[in-house]
Amino acid sequence: MRIHDCKYKWETLRANSATIPTAITAFLWSDWPSDGRIGTIRVSEKFPDANAVKIVFIGTDAADETFTWILYGKRQQNGPIETLLTGAVILGARVATPDPVTGGTITNAKYADQITVVSGTMDEHDVIENSGANDEMASISFPLFGITDLYLEIVIAGQTAAAGGAIITGITMLGA
User: Fold this and answer.
1) What share of the chain is helix, strand, coil (3-state, %, to 5)?
2) Would you say the pTM of this structure is higher than 0.85?
3) Least-confidence region, from 7-11, 36-40, 131-135, 171-175
4) What is the Cα–Cα distance from 50 to 44, expressed in whole angstroms?
């Protein structure tokens, strides 16, 4: 259950891009993308008192276009990089321009109105879909459980969207 206690500003998790990032393949602590790399965020610093995060996906092209995503995480203590969640999104008709975080220009940007989670180690997650006639934003929320850093990989190859990205904020969840 989510408490609507979002006291943090939204941050860019991955800027809307058609560039496919380098995939994580070894899953070793030392293979984590360097700080400041596109798609990485240190949630423990950006949202220090949050025990959960909320993610909203953005993509470009048109409503009903798709892309897939992989969300990785690491914890404070050395250990393997975890594949927290993987899935797909379908863009809705709600316009996401200008960029909701930076105010910069994104041409033809739309919020995702459907999020599907396919796999991952994060058993607890809450997907809120608004895919009815209103084409509102969908979001995914999950407790951090000691996760300090996140890395989002967007996969455009073989999908219909021209580009994809996501924004993130810290929240509070009961029981997390």
Assistant:
1) 5, 50, 50
2) yes
3) 131-135
4) 8
